[in-house]
Amino acid sequence: MTRVGVLGLARSGRAAAQLALRQGMSVYATDASSGEELRRTAAELQKQGAAVDVGSHSAAALAECDVMIVSPGIPPTAPILRESAVAGVPRISELEFASRALRSPMIAITGTNGKSTTTAMTSHILSGCGFTAPAAGNIGTPLSEIAMREPQPDWVVVEASSFQLADIDTFRPAVGVVTNLAPDHLDRYPDVATYYADKARLFDNADGDSIWVLNAEDEAVLALPGEADGARLVFRVNTQLGGSERGGHIDAAGRLAVRLDAGDEVLLHRSELSVMGSHNEANALAAAIAAMCAGASADCTASGLRTFRGLAHRLEVVATRDGIVWINDSKATNIDSTLVALRSMTRPTVLLLGGRHKGEPYTRLLDEIERAVTAVIAYGEAGAEVEKDLTGSVPVIRVTGGFEDVMAQARSLAVSGGAVLLSPACSSYDMFRNYEERGDAFRRLVLESAA
What we know:
35% helix; 20 strands; globular; nine-stranded mixed beta sheet; 451 residues; alpha/beta
């Protein structure tokens, strides 16, 4: 009997353990934390037949496993993984483990920014066109949950992070999308090249039937597949498709058009999209190409693009109060994502910048800050770094208290006709469990202040 170790019991770990048990495997599941929710998960898995530890790991139990499924939140440098007894156990991601049981074809979407939006948009288009096509992976629903569904869906649209791709072996999507590439996670990776190398693992198992959808305006993206087999389609927002290129672009009239064969199929005008910013036009093109490769018609794809309303925590307008627009962009956990948000701002903006530092200089934001921002509120563990990088170019107010203090300072600085933008350029782990919890706190405090 195969013995599976599951390291980390958040949602993806729990689902992987359940999938392994359903397949008749022996499971040892463990998490170093021990909160109430984890204890409930442990009790549930024990009832289903797993051996479970919470609050600590057993290196001896993990050493007896044939394979370990490691949470993407656990870095390779974690002490338990460096234990000599554990280091030799083969390690895979939940994405890899689930894909072995999945019978549905996959559309896998990776990149530095735009992954979640493009994943949700592709799923939305296909679902509106009559396909069962759930979004899974890094976007929230573990792929293992989808692998246990009966009947299996027509397609699965998978958001794949670099951490998940790092530990794949046989994972092979029918369609793969790369939205863009930029430095990120430099708190975990030694350099950008290593980060990009994990992204490039998307192409490891390519064959002649693979379809790759690539951002043609990003040289790093075009180089990422190397010599991988498969058809290459591209998307362009600021330039037109070349004569031999297939994919999608915005034509001279401002319309999104897809070219899979000889001619362009016009979908809709860019003004008809409900999500704002040129980055979302790129996401829409990528999603449209992927959906049409999966069988969606042009008319149905256009309808899906019109009706897609965007994601929570990504340039989400929470409220307009006293002429001030409050915008939740908590999902902006790196510099490039915050740059995208700032480029979308047309009002004088108070920017909330901070959290846990990820290794990038905040000076990269200066051009857009000088254009759109009236004040920066620097907070969290990164507050001192933000203050050091930006002071002298823009007013920077350092807040050393909790998030309620950050919001109180924002209210005192905001003026009618302006905006308050939470786009932190940092991870949330100094104050919150994840970016969703941070965004929810922002939303709650905005709405409570208006009550």
